[in-house]
Amino acid sequence: MDTQKVVQSIQNKEARIGIIGLGYVGLPLLLEFAKAGFPVAGFDVDSTKTEQIAFGKSYIRHIPSSAIKQHLTDNPASFCTTDFSRITECQALLICVPTPLTAHRDPDLSYVLQTGEQIAPYLQAGQIVTLESTTYPGTTEEELLPVLEKGSNLKAGKDFYLAYSPEREDPNNKDFSTATIPKVVGGLDADSLAVATALYSAVICELVPVSNCRTAEAAKLMENIFRCVNIALVNELKIVFTAMKIDIWEVIRAAATKPFGFMPFYPGPGLGGHCIPIDPFYLTWKAKEYGIASRFIELAGEVNTSMPSYVIQRTMLALNQDGKPLRGSRIVLLGLAYKKNVDDDRESPTYAIWEQLLEHGALVSYHDPYCPVVRPSREHGHFAGVASISIDQVNAENFDVAIITTGHDNIDHDAIAKRLPLVVDTRGVCTPAPNVHQA
Ligand SMILES: NC(=O)c1ccc[n+]([C@@H]2O[C@H](COP(=O)([O-])OP(=O)(O)OC[C@H]3O[C@@H](n4cnc5c(N)ncnc54)[C@H](O)[C@@H]3O)[C@@H](O)[C@H]2O)c1
User: Fold this and answer.
1) 100 FRET partner, CA 20 to 30 A, in 209, 254, 346, 435?
2) 22 CA distance to ligand 1 middle (Å)
3) CB 429 within 8 A of CB 439
4) Is the model's pTM score more than 0.70?
5) In this predicted structure, what is the pLDDT of residue 380?
6) Do 430 and 294 share a structural domain?
7) ∠ at Cα 361 (359, 364), nearest 5°?
8) Alpha helices for 90-182 (secondary structure H)
Protein backbone atom coordinates (compact mmCIF):
# COMPACT_ATOMS: atom_id res chain seq x y z
CA MET A 1 0.00 0.00 0.00
CA ASP A 2 1.20 3.49 -0.79
CA THR A 3 0.51 5.07 2.59
CA GLN A 4 1.93 8.42 1.54
CA LYS A 5 -0.49 8.55 -1.39
CA VAL A 6 -3.48 7.65 0.84
CA VAL A 7 -2.51 10.31 3.39
CA GLN A 8 -2.14 12.81 0.56
CA SER A 9 -5.61 12.06 -0.83
CA ILE A 10 -7.04 12.63 2.66
CA GLN A 11 -5.09 15.86 3.14
CA ASN A 12 -6.26 17.08 -0.27
CA LYS A 13 -9.83 16.20 0.73
CA GLU A 14 -10.26 14.05 -2.35
CA ALA A 15 -10.91 10.90 -0.30
CA ARG A 16 -14.57 10.07 0.27
CA ILE A 17 -15.35 9.43 3.93
CA GLY A 18 -18.00 6.79 4.62
CA ILE A 19 -19.80 6.59 7.96
CA ILE A 20 -21.67 3.41 8.83
CA GLY A 21 -24.44 3.88 11.38
CA LEU A 22 -26.07 7.32 11.27
CA GLY A 23 -27.19 7.67 14.88
CA TYR A 24 -26.18 9.99 17.71
CA VAL A 25 -22.49 9.41 16.95
CA GLY A 26 -22.40 8.79 13.20
CA LEU A 27 -24.58 11.67 12.02
CA PRO A 28 -22.58 14.48 13.71
CA LEU A 29 -19.34 12.88 12.45
CA LEU A 30 -20.70 12.72 8.91
CA LEU A 31 -21.67 16.40 9.12
CA GLU A 32 -18.22 17.30 10.42
CA PHE A 33 -16.45 15.72 7.43
CA ALA A 34 -18.96 17.24 5.00
CA LYS A 35 -18.51 20.71 6.57
CA ALA A 36 -14.72 20.34 6.22
CA GLY A 37 -15.18 19.89 2.46
CA PHE A 38 -14.81 16.11 2.10
CA PRO A 39 -17.05 14.11 -0.21
CA VAL A 40 -19.01 11.92 2.22
CA ALA A 41 -21.21 8.84 2.24
CA GLY A 42 -23.59 7.77 5.00
CA PHE A 43 -24.68 4.14 5.34
CA ASP A 44 -27.42 2.77 7.57
CA VAL A 45 -29.65 -0.31 7.58
CA ASP A 46 -32.54 1.92 8.69
CA SER A 47 -33.98 3.43 5.52
CA THR A 48 -36.11 5.93 7.48
CA LYS A 49 -32.84 7.67 8.45
CA THR A 50 -31.39 7.86 4.94
CA GLU A 51 -34.81 9.01 3.64
CA GLN A 52 -35.08 11.78 6.22
CA ILE A 53 -31.61 12.99 5.26
CA ALA A 54 -32.68 12.96 1.60
CA PHE A 55 -35.59 15.24 2.60
CA GLY A 56 -33.28 17.55 4.59
CA LYS A 57 -34.78 16.51 7.91
CA SER A 58 -33.01 15.90 11.17
CA TYR A 59 -34.15 13.05 13.42
CA ILE A 60 -31.94 14.11 16.35
CA ARG A 61 -33.23 17.08 18.32
CA HIS A 62 -29.94 18.91 18.87
CA ILE A 63 -28.91 18.62 15.20
CA PRO A 64 -30.73 21.26 13.14
CA SER A 65 -32.41 20.24 9.86
CA SER A 66 -30.73 23.26 8.24
CA ALA A 67 -27.29 21.63 8.80
CA ILE A 68 -28.49 18.35 7.27
CA LYS A 69 -29.95 20.18 4.28
CA GLN A 70 -26.91 22.36 3.67
CA HIS A 71 -24.13 19.81 4.18
CA LEU A 72 -25.81 16.57 3.13
CA THR A 73 -29.09 16.87 1.18
CA ASP A 74 -28.08 19.79 -1.07
CA ASN A 75 -24.41 18.82 -1.22
CA PRO A 76 -23.62 17.17 -4.58
CA ALA A 77 -20.52 15.55 -3.02
CA SER A 78 -22.63 13.65 -0.46
CA PHE A 79 -24.93 10.65 -0.51
CA CYS A 80 -26.67 8.56 2.16
CA THR A 81 -27.84 5.07 1.35
CA THR A 82 -28.74 1.59 2.52
CA ASP A 83 -26.81 0.15 -0.45
CA PHE A 84 -23.56 -1.21 0.95
CA SER A 85 -22.08 -1.90 -2.50
CA ARG A 86 -21.28 1.83 -2.57
CA ILE A 87 -18.62 1.12 0.08
CA THR A 88 -16.32 0.78 -2.95
CA GLU A 89 -16.62 4.56 -3.51
CA CYS A 90 -15.08 5.41 -0.11
CA GLN A 91 -11.49 5.75 1.04
CA ALA A 92 -12.33 5.57 4.74
CA LEU A 93 -15.05 3.60 6.55
CA LEU A 94 -15.93 4.67 10.07
CA ILE A 95 -18.15 2.25 11.98
CA CYS A 96 -20.54 3.89 14.47
CA VAL A 97 -23.07 1.13 15.21
CA PRO A 98 -24.57 0.17 18.60
CA THR A 99 -22.77 -1.99 21.16
CA PRO A 100 -25.50 -2.93 23.67
CA LEU A 101 -25.67 -5.75 26.22
CA THR A 102 -27.56 -9.00 25.68
CA ALA A 103 -30.47 -9.99 27.91
CA HIS A 104 -27.88 -11.66 30.17
CA ARG A 105 -25.81 -8.46 30.30
CA ASP A 106 -22.99 -9.78 28.16
CA PRO A 107 -21.49 -7.69 25.31
CA ASP A 108 -23.59 -7.83 22.17
CA LEU A 109 -21.18 -7.37 19.27
CA SER A 110 -23.72 -8.50 16.67
CA TYR A 111 -24.08 -5.01 15.13
CA VAL A 112 -20.31 -4.59 14.78
CA LEU A 113 -19.84 -8.06 13.32
CA GLN A 114 -22.79 -7.66 10.97
CA THR A 115 -21.33 -4.37 9.77
CA GLY A 116 -18.01 -6.12 9.17
CA GLU A 117 -19.81 -8.74 7.09
CA GLN A 118 -21.61 -6.04 5.11
CA ILE A 119 -18.39 -4.15 4.37
CA ALA A 120 -16.10 -7.11 3.64
CA PRO A 121 -17.37 -8.09 0.14
CA TYR A 122 -16.83 -4.51 -1.05
CA LEU A 123 -13.61 -3.75 0.81
CA GLN A 124 -10.92 -2.33 -1.50
CA ALA A 125 -7.14 -2.40 -1.20
CA GLY A 126 -5.89 0.84 0.37
CA GLN A 127 -9.09 1.62 2.30
CA ILE A 128 -9.04 2.32 6.03
CA VAL A 129 -11.63 0.88 8.41
CA THR A 130 -11.91 2.45 11.84
CA LEU A 131 -14.20 1.30 14.61
CA GLU A 132 -15.77 4.05 16.77
CA SER A 133 -18.23 1.98 18.81
CA THR A 134 -17.43 1.58 22.51
CA THR A 135 -16.22 -1.92 23.26
CA TYR A 136 -13.79 -4.08 25.25
CA PRO A 137 -10.05 -4.19 24.53
CA GLY A 138 -9.34 -6.66 21.77
CA THR A 139 -12.53 -6.19 19.73
CA THR A 140 -10.95 -4.51 16.70
CA GLU A 141 -8.17 -7.04 16.30
CA GLU A 142 -9.80 -10.22 17.64
CA GLU A 143 -13.36 -9.79 16.37
CA LEU A 144 -13.62 -7.24 13.54
CA LEU A 145 -10.35 -8.00 11.76
CA PRO A 146 -11.10 -11.71 11.06
CA VAL A 147 -14.57 -10.88 9.72
CA LEU A 148 -13.13 -8.24 7.36
CA GLU A 149 -10.32 -10.50 6.18
CA LYS A 150 -12.56 -13.53 5.68
CA GLY A 151 -15.18 -11.73 3.60
CA SER A 152 -12.73 -9.75 1.49
CA ASN A 153 -9.75 -12.02 0.93
CA LEU A 154 -7.63 -9.01 1.86
CA LYS A 155 -5.10 -8.84 4.69
CA ALA A 156 -5.25 -6.18 7.39
CA GLY A 157 -2.04 -4.18 7.60
CA LYS A 158 -0.99 -5.40 4.17
CA ASP A 159 -3.99 -4.62 1.93
CA PHE A 160 -6.13 -2.35 4.10
CA TYR A 161 -5.63 -0.20 7.19
CA LEU A 162 -7.42 -0.82 10.48
CA ALA A 163 -7.78 1.46 13.52
CA TYR A 164 -9.90 2.09 16.60
CA SER A 165 -10.91 5.58 17.66
CA PRO A 166 -13.56 5.91 20.35
CA GLU A 167 -16.28 8.50 20.13
CA ARG A 168 -16.59 11.00 22.97
CA GLU A 169 -19.77 12.69 21.79
CA ASP A 170 -21.78 14.32 24.59
CA PRO A 171 -25.16 15.07 22.99
CA ASN A 172 -26.34 18.64 23.51
CA ASN A 173 -23.21 19.74 25.38
CA LYS A 174 -22.96 23.43 24.44
CA ASP A 175 -19.27 23.67 25.41
CA PHE A 176 -17.92 20.76 23.35
CA SER A 177 -18.79 19.44 19.89
CA THR A 178 -17.43 16.56 17.81
CA ALA A 179 -14.69 18.80 16.37
CA THR A 180 -13.51 20.32 19.65
CA ILE A 181 -13.22 17.13 21.73
CA PRO A 182 -9.70 15.61 21.60
CA LYS A 183 -9.82 12.14 20.07
CA VAL A 184 -7.83 9.03 21.02
CA VAL A 185 -6.61 6.89 18.08
CA GLY A 186 -4.91 3.50 18.01
CA GLY A 187 -3.84 1.68 14.85
CA LEU A 188 -3.19 -1.94 13.97
CA ASP A 189 0.31 -0.86 12.88
CA ALA A 190 2.27 2.34 12.23
CA ASP A 191 0.78 2.87 8.75
CA SER A 192 -2.79 2.37 10.00
CA LEU A 193 -2.12 4.94 12.71
CA ALA A 194 -0.62 7.37 10.17
CA VAL A 195 -3.69 7.14 7.91
CA ALA A 196 -6.13 7.34 10.86
CA THR A 197 -4.27 10.37 12.18
CA ALA A 198 -4.45 12.12 8.80
CA LEU A 199 -8.15 11.31 8.63
CA TYR A 200 -9.22 12.56 12.04
CA SER A 201 -6.88 15.54 12.22
CA ALA A 202 -8.72 16.96 9.20
CA VAL A 203 -11.79 17.57 11.38
CA ILE A 204 -10.80 17.17 15.05
CA CYS A 205 -8.87 19.83 16.98
CA GLU A 206 -6.52 17.50 18.84
CA LEU A 207 -5.58 13.88 18.36
CA VAL A 208 -4.19 11.57 21.05
CA PRO A 209 -2.36 8.72 19.32
CA VAL A 210 -1.76 5.60 21.45
CA SER A 211 0.31 2.45 20.86
CA ASN A 212 -2.43 0.17 19.57
CA CYS A 213 -6.16 -0.46 19.21
CA ARG A 214 -6.42 -2.22 22.60
CA THR A 215 -5.10 0.82 24.46
CA ALA A 216 -7.59 3.09 22.69
CA GLU A 217 -10.42 0.65 23.51
CA ALA A 218 -9.31 0.54 27.15
CA ALA A 219 -9.08 4.36 27.38
CA LYS A 220 -12.72 4.75 26.35
CA LEU A 221 -13.89 2.17 28.89
CA MET A 222 -11.82 3.79 31.63
CA GLU A 223 -13.53 7.16 30.99
CA ASN A 224 -16.99 5.66 31.24
CA ILE A 225 -16.17 3.44 34.23
CA PHE A 226 -14.84 6.53 36.00
CA ARG A 227 -18.22 8.21 35.51
CA CYS A 228 -20.21 5.12 36.46
CA VAL A 229 -18.30 4.55 39.71
CA ASN A 230 -18.40 8.21 40.75
CA ILE A 231 -22.10 8.51 40.03
CA ALA A 232 -22.69 5.39 42.15
CA LEU A 233 -20.65 6.95 44.96
CA VAL A 234 -22.63 10.17 44.94
CA ASN A 235 -25.89 8.21 44.75
CA GLU A 236 -24.85 6.28 47.86
CA LEU A 237 -23.87 9.51 49.62
CA LYS A 238 -27.27 10.95 48.74
CA ILE A 239 -28.99 8.08 50.54
CA VAL A 240 -26.75 8.54 53.59
CA PHE A 241 -27.08 12.34 53.76
CA THR A 242 -30.82 12.32 53.10
CA ALA A 243 -31.27 9.96 56.09
CA MET A 244 -29.22 12.47 58.12
CA LYS A 245 -31.44 15.33 56.87
CA ILE A 246 -28.52 16.92 55.04
CA ASP A 247 -29.12 18.39 51.59
CA ILE A 248 -26.80 16.48 49.19
CA TRP A 249 -27.02 19.28 46.61
CA GLU A 250 -25.79 21.86 49.09
CA VAL A 251 -22.99 19.47 50.12
CA ILE A 252 -21.87 19.07 46.50
CA ARG A 253 -21.95 22.83 45.88
CA ALA A 254 -19.79 23.37 48.96
CA ALA A 255 -17.33 20.54 48.18
CA ALA A 256 -16.98 21.71 44.58
CA THR A 257 -15.42 24.98 45.75
CA LYS A 258 -12.23 23.02 46.48
CA PRO A 259 -9.97 24.12 43.62
CA PHE A 260 -8.08 20.82 43.36
CA GLY A 261 -8.57 17.10 43.94
CA PHE A 262 -12.37 17.15 43.71
CA MET A 263 -14.71 16.84 40.77
CA PRO A 264 -18.47 17.14 41.30
CA PHE A 265 -20.76 14.33 40.19
CA TYR A 266 -24.51 14.56 40.63
CA PRO A 267 -26.96 12.00 41.97
CA GLY A 268 -30.16 10.99 40.22
CA PRO A 269 -32.84 8.32 40.01
CA GLY A 270 -30.37 5.82 38.50
CA LEU A 271 -28.18 5.65 35.42
CA GLY A 272 -29.32 6.18 31.87
CA GLY A 273 -28.18 6.66 28.31
CA HIS A 274 -26.57 4.40 25.80
CA CYS A 275 -23.12 4.42 27.44
CA ILE A 276 -22.60 4.64 31.19
CA PRO A 277 -25.02 1.87 32.29
CA ILE A 278 -23.66 -0.50 29.63
CA ASP A 279 -20.01 0.05 28.72
CA PRO A 280 -18.45 -0.83 32.11
CA PHE A 281 -19.87 -4.35 31.80
CA TYR A 282 -17.94 -4.85 28.56
CA LEU A 283 -14.79 -4.77 30.67
CA THR A 284 -16.26 -6.92 33.46
CA TRP A 285 -17.03 -9.56 30.86
CA LYS A 286 -13.60 -9.43 29.22
CA ALA A 287 -11.78 -9.37 32.60
CA LYS A 288 -13.33 -12.77 33.41
CA GLU A 289 -11.37 -14.24 30.49
CA TYR A 290 -8.26 -13.32 32.52
CA GLY A 291 -9.72 -14.72 35.75
CA ILE A 292 -10.15 -11.23 37.21
CA ALA A 293 -13.25 -9.93 38.98
CA SER A 294 -13.88 -6.20 38.52
CA ARG A 295 -15.58 -5.60 41.86
CA PHE A 296 -15.75 -1.80 41.73
CA ILE A 297 -17.68 -1.95 38.47
CA GLU A 298 -20.07 -4.59 39.79
CA LEU A 299 -20.68 -2.65 42.99
CA ALA A 300 -21.27 0.61 41.11
CA GLY A 301 -23.74 -1.24 38.90
CA GLU A 302 -25.54 -2.59 41.97
CA VAL A 303 -25.84 0.84 43.61
CA ASN A 304 -26.97 2.56 40.41
CA THR A 305 -29.56 -0.04 39.48
CA SER A 306 -31.01 0.05 43.01
CA MET A 307 -31.72 3.80 42.77
CA PRO A 308 -35.20 3.46 41.20
CA SER A 309 -36.25 1.34 44.22
CA TYR A 310 -34.97 4.08 46.51
CA VAL A 311 -37.10 6.61 44.62
CA ILE A 312 -40.14 4.38 45.10
CA GLN A 313 -39.40 4.08 48.81
CA ARG A 314 -39.10 7.89 49.14
CA THR A 315 -42.35 8.32 47.21
CA MET A 316 -44.11 5.91 49.61
CA LEU A 317 -42.83 7.91 52.58
CA ALA A 318 -43.92 11.19 51.01
CA LEU A 319 -47.43 9.86 50.31
CA ASN A 320 -47.60 8.40 53.80
CA GLN A 321 -47.17 11.92 55.13
CA ASP A 322 -50.41 12.78 53.30
CA GLY A 323 -52.08 9.63 54.63
CA LYS A 324 -52.11 7.93 51.23
CA PRO A 325 -50.91 4.51 50.07
CA LEU A 326 -48.95 4.10 46.86
CA ARG A 327 -51.64 1.76 45.55
CA GLY A 328 -54.20 3.87 43.70
CA SER A 329 -52.19 7.09 43.96
CA ARG A 330 -52.03 9.19 40.80
CA ILE A 331 -48.42 9.86 39.91
CA VAL A 332 -46.85 11.91 37.13
CA LEU A 333 -43.26 11.29 36.10
CA LEU A 334 -41.60 14.50 34.94
CA GLY A 335 -39.14 13.43 32.27
CA LEU A 336 -38.62 10.31 30.21
CA ALA A 337 -35.21 11.31 28.79
CA TYR A 338 -32.20 9.96 30.69
CA LYS A 339 -30.72 13.46 31.08
CA LYS A 340 -31.98 16.99 30.84
CA ASN A 341 -32.67 18.82 27.59
CA VAL A 342 -32.25 15.80 25.30
CA ASP A 343 -34.78 13.51 23.60
CA ASP A 344 -32.81 10.32 24.28
CA ASP A 345 -34.74 7.89 26.50
CA ARG A 346 -32.44 4.87 26.06
CA GLU A 347 -31.82 3.04 29.36
CA SER A 348 -33.66 5.84 31.13
CA PRO A 349 -34.24 5.02 34.81
CA THR A 350 -37.69 6.59 34.45
CA TYR A 351 -38.81 3.30 32.90
CA ALA A 352 -37.64 1.27 35.91
CA ILE A 353 -39.49 3.66 38.23
CA TRP A 354 -42.60 3.48 36.06
CA GLU A 355 -42.51 -0.37 36.09
CA GLN A 356 -42.15 -0.50 39.87
CA LEU A 357 -44.93 2.02 40.46
CA LEU A 358 -47.29 -0.08 38.34
CA GLU A 359 -46.29 -3.20 40.29
CA HIS A 360 -47.36 -1.36 43.45
CA GLY A 361 -50.73 -0.46 41.91
CA ALA A 362 -50.09 3.25 41.29
CA LEU A 363 -51.70 5.08 38.37
CA VAL A 364 -48.88 6.53 36.27
CA SER A 365 -48.61 9.21 33.57
CA TYR A 366 -45.60 11.09 32.26
CA HIS A 367 -44.77 14.49 30.88
CA ASP A 368 -41.73 15.10 28.66
CA PRO A 369 -41.68 17.86 26.04
CA TYR A 370 -38.84 16.09 24.20
CA CYS A 371 -40.34 12.59 24.21
CA PRO A 372 -43.97 13.14 23.18
CA VAL A 373 -44.66 9.43 22.65
CA VAL A 374 -42.85 6.34 23.98
CA ARG A 375 -40.96 4.80 21.08
CA PRO A 376 -41.00 1.05 20.50
CA SER A 377 -38.04 -0.64 22.19
CA ARG A 378 -36.83 -4.10 23.04
CA GLU A 379 -36.80 -3.44 26.79
CA HIS A 380 -40.03 -1.49 27.28
CA GLY A 381 -42.15 -2.52 24.32
CA HIS A 382 -45.32 -2.57 26.44
CA PHE A 383 -45.07 1.21 26.99
CA ALA A 384 -44.75 1.95 23.25
CA GLY A 385 -47.32 4.45 22.04
CA VAL A 386 -48.10 5.95 25.47
CA ALA A 387 -48.22 9.74 25.02
CA SER A 388 -46.88 12.50 27.24
CA ILE A 389 -49.64 14.44 28.98
CA SER A 390 -49.59 18.23 28.59
CA ILE A 391 -48.01 20.37 31.28
CA ASP A 392 -51.43 21.97 32.01
CA GLN A 393 -52.69 18.58 33.12
CA VAL A 394 -50.00 18.40 35.80
CA ASN A 395 -52.17 19.80 38.58
CA ALA A 396 -53.67 18.85 41.95
CA GLU A 397 -56.95 17.80 40.35
CA ASN A 398 -55.20 15.05 38.38
CA PHE A 399 -52.26 14.00 40.55
CA ASP A 400 -51.27 13.24 44.14
CA VAL A 401 -47.55 13.45 43.49
CA ALA A 402 -45.04 14.39 40.79
CA ILE A 403 -41.69 12.62 40.62
CA ILE A 404 -39.02 14.75 38.96
CA THR A 405 -37.05 12.17 37.04
CA THR A 406 -35.15 14.23 34.46
CA GLY A 407 -35.05 17.95 35.33
CA HIS A 408 -35.44 19.53 31.85
CA ASP A 409 -34.67 23.29 31.96
CA ASN A 410 -37.89 24.21 30.14
CA ILE A 411 -40.12 22.79 32.89
CA ASP A 412 -40.88 25.17 35.76
CA HIS A 413 -40.49 22.64 38.58
CA ASP A 414 -41.05 25.20 41.34
CA ALA A 415 -44.39 26.17 39.78
CA ILE A 416 -45.37 22.49 39.76
CA ALA A 417 -44.34 22.13 43.42
CA LYS A 418 -46.66 25.06 44.23
CA ARG A 419 -49.70 23.50 42.60
CA LEU A 420 -49.27 19.83 43.58
CA PRO A 421 -49.66 18.34 47.07
CA LEU A 422 -46.33 16.48 46.85
CA VAL A 423 -43.18 16.48 44.76
CA VAL A 424 -40.38 13.90 44.89
CA ASP A 425 -37.28 15.55 43.47
CA THR A 426 -34.48 13.23 42.27
CA ARG A 427 -32.57 15.99 40.47
CA GLY A 428 -32.28 18.79 42.99
CA VAL A 429 -34.15 21.26 40.77
CA CYS A 430 -36.81 22.40 43.26
CA THR A 431 -36.44 25.06 45.91
CA PRO A 432 -36.75 23.32 49.31
CA ALA A 433 -40.36 23.39 50.60
CA PRO A 434 -42.37 21.26 53.05
CA ASN A 435 -44.06 19.33 50.22
CA VAL A 436 -40.81 18.75 48.28
CA HIS A 437 -39.06 15.49 49.16
CA GLN A 438 -35.56 14.73 47.94
CA ALA A 439 -34.97 11.27 46.55
N1 LIG B 1 -24.71 8.32 21.98
C2 LIG B 1 -23.62 8.74 22.57
O3 LIG B 1 -23.62 9.78 23.20
C4 LIG B 1 -22.30 7.96 22.46
C5 LIG B 1 -21.14 8.57 22.94
C6 LIG B 1 -19.93 7.89 22.82
C7 LIG B 1 -19.91 6.61 22.25
N8 LIG B 1 -21.06 6.04 21.81
C9 LIG B 1 -20.94 4.73 21.19
O10 LIG B 1 -21.10 4.87 19.78
C11 LIG B 1 -21.77 3.72 19.23
C12 LIG B 1 -23.01 4.17 18.47
O13 LIG B 1 -23.90 4.79 19.39
P14 LIG B 1 -25.09 5.72 18.93
O15 LIG B 1 -25.57 6.41 20.15
O16 LIG B 1 -24.70 6.55 17.75
O17 LIG B 1 -26.15 4.63 18.46
P18 LIG B 1 -27.50 4.87 17.64
O19 LIG B 1 -28.40 3.76 17.96
O20 LIG B 1 -27.97 6.28 17.81
O21 LIG B 1 -27.04 4.74 16.12
C22 LIG B 1 -26.57 3.57 15.57
C23 LIG B 1 -27.00 3.49 14.12
O24 LIG B 1 -26.44 2.33 13.55
C25 LIG B 1 -27.38 1.77 12.66
N26 LIG B 1 -27.02 0.39 12.43
C27 LIG B 1 -27.23 -0.69 13.20
N28 LIG B 1 -26.74 -1.78 12.63
C29 LIG B 1 -26.19 -1.39 11.45
C30 LIG B 1 -25.52 -2.07 10.42
N31 LIG B 1 -25.31 -3.38 10.47
N32 LIG B 1 -25.10 -1.35 9.36
C33 LIG B 1 -25.33 -0.02 9.30
N34 LIG B 1 -25.96 0.68 10.25
C35 LIG B 1 -26.38 -0.02 11.30
C36 LIG B 1 -28.70 1.97 13.36
O37 LIG B 1 -29.79 1.89 12.45
C38 LIG B 1 -28.51 3.39 13.93
O39 LIG B 1 -28.94 4.39 13.02
C40 LIG B 1 -22.04 2.80 20.42
O41 LIG B 1 -21.00 1.89 20.55
C42 LIG B 1 -22.02 3.74 21.61
O43 LIG B 1 -21.66 3.08 22.80
C44 LIG B 1 -22.25 6.70 21.89
Assistant:
1) 209
2) 7
3) no
4) yes
5) 87
6) yes
7) 90
8) 110-119, 145-152
Residue 197, Ramachandran bin (φ over 0: left; ψ between -120 and 50: alpha; else beta) = alpha
Q: Residues 331, 392: one domain?
A: yes
Residues of the chain below pLDDT 50 = none
Q: How far apart are CA 391 and CA 406, in angstroms?
A: 15
Based on the domain organization, do 185 and 232 belong to the same domain? no
User: Which residue range forms the structural domain that includes residue 141?
Assistant: 3-211
Regarding whether 252 and 206 lie in a shared domain, the answer is no
Q: Which residues of 243-265 are buried (b: 16+ CB within 10 A; e: fewer)?
A: eeeeebbeebeeeeeeeeeeeeb
Question: d(Cα 58, Cα 16) in Å, to the nearest integer?
Answer: 22
Residues with CB under 6 A from ligand 1: 20-26, 43-46, 49, 96-99, 111, 114-115, 118, 132-134, 167, 169, 171, 274-275
Measured in angstroms, how far is the CA atom of residue 24 from the centroid of ligand 1? Answer: 7
Distances (CA, A) of 285 to 180, 213, 290, 340: 32, 18, 10, 30
- What whole-number distance in Å separates Cα of residue 116 and Cα of residue 267? 39
Distance CA 42, CA 205 (A): 22
pLDDT at 159: 98
